[in-house]
Every structure is written in structure tokens, then in C-alpha cells.
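Case study 2.
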Amino acid sequence: MRIRSTALTAVAALALAAWMPAASAQAGEATGAAGDIVTSVPSAFHPLPGQPTNTKAWKIHYRSTTADGAPNTVSGTVIVPQDGRTGPRPLVTYAVGTVGMGDSCAPSNNLPYGTAMEANLIQQLTLRGWAVVVTDYEGLGTPGVHTYTVGPSAGHAMLDAARAATRLPEAGLSADTPVGIMGYSQGGQAAGWAAELQGSYAPELKVKGTAAGGVPADLMKVAEFNNGSYGSGLIFMAAAGQDAAFPELGLDSYLNPAGKLLVNGMKEGCVAIDAIAGSFKRISDLTTRDPLAQPDWQARLNQSRLGRTAPAAPVYQYHALGDELIPYGVGRQLRSDWCAKGANLEFDTIWVGEHVSGVITHSLEAGNWLADRFADRPARPNC
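Prediction:
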């Protein structure tokens, strides 16, 4: 009976972590600084259902900043290995690839149960003895619509997640903790933005380097590439995300009835269903006029374009030559733009594979690259 009671208590704690009342999280928006913790509750980390990881985890709500500079609250998960290590350990602020726009898709709602898609990749980092903080991004797991593909918002969320992890007493980290930034696909965009913003937005963080792969650095080119293809659902998800951040764009006024039905469903769904529902559709199939042809839409999408600022710390950027979702040319252009700004950048082409396989096949290389940065070994830029 005691075992059953203990199990029920654990389940209840995890359930509480998954639906932390929105009012409590939002209450901290008016006070405090970016990176301050609003709430924290014990959680868990399982790459597969029931798989032990010898870690402790906490679900947190923390202060961050929207793309336009307003305070908001974002949720996430802090994971710390229980390996007996004393003294400082590195921290990786990690951004996942596209999981969807519905709150149920948020990493913090899946990491405790072994249902998060990138949990095995995160485990590769905790097995190195590193702490990891995984942001849920703005509006994913918190009130409002997820601001999918809005780069400045995602960069803020990553940097503030790192701040929050160092301010969580139970995690055993500190303001001097060495920090790595890591992400692929949507996470690669977030990581790139965190790298570009860190010098001005969070200069106190001891960032050693950024590993970013499959980066959708230019949303206009990515949309053009995917229009009518199997990845076309990403265009409509991105449009909904931009509209969530900038309501004046008025996405709904551009959509025909089929478009409204699809986009409204995407706001509540996860990526597997959303990608299928939106595949092989052209923008013209779901709109009365093309929003991407309008100056205000173009300006907002270009606001998320990467490459205008050199990251303050070294960068490892990797991209699959055969990427069928984020064209290789977009990655190469980001490389050229960063190099022209004087970035300390190592670029790596994945010669065999495509978009999804790239995050798996290059996870070890990305981890090894961060390990070298944490060990203060010199980077090997190839601009």
C-alpha cells in the first residue's frame, strides 16, 4: 500500500508540473528580471518510458522577453546529472526542433514520460556530466499561441532559460557556470538567435560556444522552397507563429475557409499530424491573397533573418547537403554572412542524409565540439 501511495504521489507531482496554473506563471511578468524563476516544481527526465537516467529534473516557469521587448513568462525543464560530481559543471541551454504548436507538445510535458522526441539526444549531454535546460519557447505550454519561428523570441527564451537554471538553487549551478547553446532545425534558429543576441542581451552568461544545425536562417527562402512540397505545412505553422507574435499582421484576413480550418487545427496539434495535414499544399490553395507578398509580412519575416550580427562566442554550424526542408543554400548563406561579420565559425557539411537524420548523425560531433569549448581548447574556424 505504501508503494502504491508513493507512486500516486509521484504521478501527482508530475501532473502538477505539466499543468502549473497559468495565473501563477503569468503573475511574475510584472516584476523581476529576465531569467528570474517564477515557479519551479520537481519533474523527471526519461528518454523512453520508465528508462532511468540518474538525473534530477525540475519544471520551471521563468521571466523572458518577447520579440518586441515586452516581458513574458516561458516554461522549461532543468535536468542535472546525479553523478557525485563536485564543483562546477557545464550547462547546455537546448532548443528542440519542431514539435508542434499545441501545449501538449511542449518538451516539459513530455520529458517526464519518455515521449519527447529529442530526449535521447539530450541524454547524450547529461551522460557527459552536463546540466541541460530545455526551453518550451514562448506560448508552448504557457498561455497564448506558440510564436513558432519568431527568432528573437526564441533567442531570448534560450538565454533566459540558462539564466533561470543558474538561479535555481536545487540545480547547484552558479552565475559562473560555463554555458553552451545547442539546437537543430527550429532549435537551430533559436540557437543562432541566442548566439547573436547573447553579447547584448545576456553578456553576463559565460557562453563558450553554440552548436546549431539545419538552421532556417531566412524564412522567406524557406517558405519559397517548401511551397507545395511535403514540407508546406511548416509554412502555415510559421505564419500562425508570426501572427501570434505580431497580431497586426492579421493572418485570418488572408485565409480562405480551408486555410482557417487548417491553421486553427495546427494551433492545437503536434508536428506529426500538422505536417501531414499541411503537406503538398500551395499558399494559393489556402488563401484569398498571399500574405508573404505584403510588405508588413516581409518585414516581420526578415526580422527573424539570421546573419546580421556575429556571435560573441565560437559557433559550430552544420547542414545536410540533401536537406529537403531547409535548403542547404540557406545554411551556406548564413555561414557566409556570419563569416563576413568576423564570426569564429566552423561549418560542416553533412554529405549523406537529409534534414531529420542530420540531427541524429551529427549529435556526437556537436557534443564533442562543445566539450572542446568547455575545456577551453581553441576552435578551428574555416571561414
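The first strand starts at residue 37 and ends at 43.
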